[in-house]
Specification:
By secondary structure, this protein is an alpha+beta fold. The chain has 5 helices and 26 strands. It is elongated and about 85 Å long.
């Protein structure tokens, strides 16, 4: 798709964002990020130097049960990431991430490898079961009960993004943990069943449950199907890229295309060797990065002459706070692919080439103390992604 189509996408998103900006800000505060409020400086970002914004997620230990694991990046592992947390999860065949819910965060996911089946329950008894393949994404609103299970005879791997950096995957509300700590007399009364029904139930959280491989065709729930008005599934990479240039491609989906995903926008950025996602910032969201393939140089500018560069490799996480200038450049000899998440349901950005092109020559000349003729050479439009020679 052309940059004209990208601008149309952003224009539609901006119109929707204008109606929800106030609610979005309140949501960020409610999610546990007090630094988002006006005039409350973040001590971590107020120092002489910018803190690290990199964490080697896949090199961390996480929680391992059998051949399944969950590894997380929260403010505990990466203190700068107050607005977004992330999890790398692998589930082996015959295993499932048990029935659970997240009290303080919505969940967005990108399937990297294998096949996954999910079932989600929302208010009103609405349920949806979906099967996912690589390139697909899901979104579960905050507090909605769900489970995740591996399909087929190959393990699955997916990356989860949560809209609250203080959220921990290992602090979820799991059904075995709840039932296991509830008196049998109360369970019996709740379900109108004998107390003996609950003999032998797990007494603590199972987290990854193991059993027979799931059937090829998902069965209906006990209560019968009651599908929600909005689907939880979107086929991100099955759609054409939003941007395609000599330097790379961008696939992106926000709530204008995936309506249920009200608090998270997700994207896949591919860059050719030497390709650059130009200097830019996001006025309404933090940016969370997970390198799927390759090696990426990420820069961050934080005012007052503060500048930091981190090199992210496969399995590493990066984080850019809202409003901070940054760029991503492929510094390997092979194409790179980066999963990017934003804690806003509407995508917005401002690019440096776009900013320069949006000003008259005399303004640029005065600002930089250079002849106006020099700026005749600058791009007349947003570059967004370039190749190693600076060409689109």
């Amino acid at each position: 798709m052309s940059n004209l189509q990208r601008r149309d996408f952003l224009a539609g998103a901006a119109a929707f964002a204008a109606a929800t900006a106030t609610l979005g800000g309140r949501g960020r505060v409610a999610a546990g990020d007090p630094s988002f409020m006006n005039n409350v400086p973040d001590p971590l970002l107020s120092g002489k130097d910018l803190p690290t914004f990199k964490f080697a997620l896949e090199k961390s230990k996480g929680k391992v049960i059998g051949n399944s694991f969950g590894k997380e990046a929260t403010v505990e592992q990466l203190p700068i990431s107050k607005g977004i947390a992330g999890v790398s999860m692998k589930i082996e065949p015959g295993a499932m991430r048990e029935l659970h819910w997240h009290a303080t965060a919505a969940e967005w996911a990108f399937v990297d490898q294998g096949r996954v089946r999910t079932t989600v329950l929302g208010p009103g008894g609405y349920t949806e079961t979906n099967d996912f393949e690589p390139g697909d994404v899901w979104y579960f609103p905050r507090g909605h009960g769900h489970m995740l299970e591996c399909l087929g005879d190959e393990p699955c791997h997916f990356v989860l993004i949560f809209d609250n950096g203080y959220f921990s995957e290992f602090g979820t509300f799991s059904i075995t943990d709840w039932v296991g700590h509830t008196p049998k007399s109360l369970l019996a009364k709740n379900f109108s069943l004998p107390e003996s029904t609950f003999d032998g139930f797990p007494e603590s959280e199972v987290y990854f449950a193991r059993g027979a491989p799931p059937p090829q065709q998902a069965a209906d729930p006990l209560a019968g199907p009651k599908r929600p008005p909005l689907t939880h599934k979107h086929r991100l990479l099955a759609n054409p890229p939003l941007v395609s240039t000599k330097g790379g491609k961008l696939w992106m989906v926000d709530s204008t295309k995936f309506p249920i995903s009200k608090t998270i926008t997700g994207a896949i950025l591919e860059l050719v060797p030497g390709g650059l996602r130009e200097l830019h910032w996001h006025p309404t969201a933090d940016e969370w990065q997970y390198v799927l393939e390759g090696k990426v140089s990420v820069t961050m500018f934080g005012s007052g002459g503060r500048y930091r560069i981190e090199t992210l490799e496969k399995g590493d996480v990066g984080y850019i706070p809202q409003g901070y200038g940054h760029s991503l450049e492929n510094v390997s000899d092979k194409p790179c692919r980066v999963l990017i998440g934003f804690n806003s349901g509407i995508y917005e950005d401002i690019d440096l080439t776009e900013w320069m092109a949006g000003n008259p020559l005399d303004v640029l000349a005065t600002n930089f103390g250079k002849p106006a003729s020099l700026f005749e050479k600058f791009p007349r439009k947003d570059v967004f992604i370039t190749d190693k020679n600076g060409k689109q």
